[in-house]
Amino acid sequence: MGQQRARGKQIAVGAVPPAKTGRGPLFWGMVGSAIYISGMATYAIIQRGPVWEMAPNAFADFLAGTFAPLAFLWLVLGFLQQGEELRNSGEALTVSDQRKLSILAASKPIRRDRMLEAAPPKPKRKAKPKPKGS
Question: Domain residues of the chain, as ranges?
Answer without folding.
Answer: 26-109
